[in-house]
Every structure is written in C-alpha cells, then in structure tokens.
Specification:
Layout (H helix, E strand, L loop, with lengths): L6 H12 L10 H10 L5 H13 L5 H6 L2 H8 L5 H17 L15 H9 L6 H11 L9 H10 L8 H9 L7 H17 L17 H7 L8
Length: about 230
C-alpha cells in the first residue's frame, strides 16, 4: 500500500527491487570476522585488498596471523587504512579466539554461550564495538542479531522510522521489535539491503526520484511537496 511504512515493509520492497545480496562476502566465517575488523572507517574495496594480501600470504587463519610479526601483519593490512590500529585489533580478536579454544574452527564460538553473553565477551575485546560485534554474531556465527550502521540510521531517519537521538541499542531494539525472534535470514538480508540502498540511493545527497522506497519515505514526500507561494 502506498505510504505504508515499517521495517518489514522496507524489507519486502527492497528485496523485490534488489534481490538476494549474498552478504557477507567471504570464503569462511573467520574471513567474515577479519572483514568486520578491517571495514571500520573504510570502504569495502579497501578491505578486499587487505584480505587478498592475507590470502596470498596464506595468513587467513588465527594461527597464521598470530605467527606473523606485528610489522608484517600491518603491511598486509595497509590497504584497509588505519592499518596499525587495525593490526592491534585483529591480533586482539585472534588472541581471544585462541583463548576460547576455537582458533582452529572460530565459528564454534557460537556454541559456547547464549547470544547476550557472547556479545558481552566480544565487546570486551580491544577494538570491537557494537557494530563489529553484531556483524560477527550475525554473519560469522549465524546468530539472530540485527546489525546497525550509519546507513540504517540515515535510512530509518528519512523514512520516519527512527529519531535522530536514539542510541545504537535503541535503534537495534526498534528494528528487532518488528522481526521474528530467531530469524537469522531476515536480519542478514535486511541489513544487506539497507547497505545497498544507502550506497546507491539514500546517500547524503539522496537520489529520491529513483529510490524503490520513494512512496514510503517521509523525507522524499517532503522533497516533493509543492512550494508555497511567497507572500509580500
């Protein structure tokens, strides 16, 4: 129905418009974890270059990364930007996985505790914030956690679904309230679709006319409102 809003409406419209996103692009759950660290404050194309370096060096495992010197690892991560900071963060994550006994098969972390406890543990790792932790939980561990990012906030605000002052936790809770508990696939697809929309349409200077959510969007409706005549 034109003008209808809500996160499940958003999901339906975007899924019909864009199709499956197959996100997160990676060859293993550990590669997802690495990408979640490296994507902080950079474009995905830069992450891909760094991951290509790691793969070429046969260093896409916990053991291999922990064997490298910090300088050597930093050079491999250089394309990702802020590479010395990210080197320390990736090493911290690898040490965490080793300490938990899942360094060989990192996705087994999902079996060690309930989601809230796993999330707390990840947030205690140096350099792992809420978005990074939730990306690991959803995309690497296949657990039902909605990821919130800058695209989510921008799109939700323009649609009239989110207020600007909300915290990460409040935004996440607002979206989760509309989703079926335990549905990993919808959370995965919805976040990926929002990323696609944010990159190609709902930019800082949005392309409202061609956006698939045009008729559902409060911001677009305001942009299209006829200008009132000026009175002398």
């Amino acid at each position: 129905m034109p003008g209808e809003r809500g996160w499940l409406v958003v999901f339906g419209v975007l899924e019909a418009a864009f199709g499956p996103q197959e996100w997160w692009p990676a060859q293993s759950p550990f590669e997802v974890m690495v990408g979640a660290i490296l994507t902080q404050n950079t474009a995905w194309r830069n992450v891909e270059k760094a991951i290509t370096n790691l793969r070429a060096a046969n260093a896409l495992s916990v053991a291999a990364i922990l064997t490298l010197s910090e300088n050597d690892l930093a050079e491999l991560l250089r394309p990702s930007g802020f590479y010395r900071i990210k080197t320390k963060r990736l090493l911290a994550l690898c040490r965490f996985l080793k300490a938990r006994g899942v360094d060989v098969v990192p996705e087994q972390l999902a079996r060690q505790a309930a989601v809230p406890a796993l999330r707390r543990d990840l947030l205690a790792v140096h350099g792992v914030g809420e978005e990074t932790a939730d990306s690991i939980l959803l995309y690497a561990l296949n657990l039902p956690v909605m990821v919130v990012d800058a695209y989510t906030r921008r799109i939700g605000g323009r649609l009239g679904l989110l207020e600007n002052h909300l915290s990460y936790t409040e935004v996440q809770a607002a979206i989760e309230a509309e989703l079926e508990p335990g549905d990993v696939a919808v959370r995965n697809a919805l976040h990926a679709l929002l990323v696609s929309l944010g990159k190609d349409y709902c930019r800082p200077r949005p392309r409202c006319d061609t956006c698939p959510l045009h008729t559902h969007c409060a911001y677009a409706a305001g942009q299209c409102r006829p200008r009132q005549p000026e009175h002398s």
